[in-house]
Amino acid sequence: MNSPRIDHTTPGVFDVVEVMMESSLIKRTLDIGSIWTAMSIFENIFTNTLTGNIILTDTNNLLSNFPIVGHETISVNIESPTIEGATSIKRKFRVYKVSDVTDQGESTKRYMVNFISEEYFTNIKTSVSKSYRDHVISDIVEKIFDSYLDSDRDLITEKTKNKYDIIIPFWKPLEAFNWLSARATPENKDGANYFFYETRDGFCFKSMESLFDQEPEETYSWDLQNMPLYL
Q1: 112 and 148 together in one domain
Q2: Which of 3, 55, 98, 164 could form a disulfide with 38 if both were Cys (CB 3.0 to 4.6 A apart)?
Q3: Domain holding 181: CATH number?
């Protein structure tokens, strides 16, 4: 059975080149490119990390032969052949739950494997207990990211103003980022609306004002349809 492919003639679609699931518990790697039927990866400025899910149609009793117990990772390689200059997405995620298990026939099951960025689990196992004196908040975010989150991804920060003396009292890194976001003010803009979030390109610490300054990806128009005409 061939891996699912997406029609390249449709603008903005993606081609999933490879999907692998690896278990550190049983020391096995499984190519699931032939059994996935749908995949979603979500970016959200209100969520610190990427999340996603993949739906598998299993005819080989995968859950018995390859038990999913929380020690698994999913590696994806996604390309966008219809977007000029677009780079491929190569990411490794951590599986945290199997849901929506349904029988599709006598020997076929369909279920959803839910995953999240590995940095989320690094965050759970790590605590920050440190004082930062005479620092702007954007510099504190960078220091915590580099020292505690153990990520190979880039961090894009928007410079903040005003220096502070701040003590982080045994907080998780993401908890510290969210606390700092609520107190950060942009260096060259009015407002105090920072977010720490992850995109396909890396992690970001940016203000709402700078996001408003970006060029829109899409423009939508809204109009009423099928409205009765009254004379």
Answers
A1: no
A2: 55
A3: 3.55.50
When divided into structural domains, the chain yields a total of: 2
CA distances from 212 to 98, 186, 191 (A): 37, 13, 12
Alpha carbons 217 and 227: distance in angstroms, whole number: 30
The parent domain of residue 43 ranges over 15-121
**Spatial separation of the C-alpha atoms in residues 19 and 171, rounded to whole Å:** 34
Asked if residue 73 belongs to a domain, the reply is yes
Same domain, 109 and 179: no
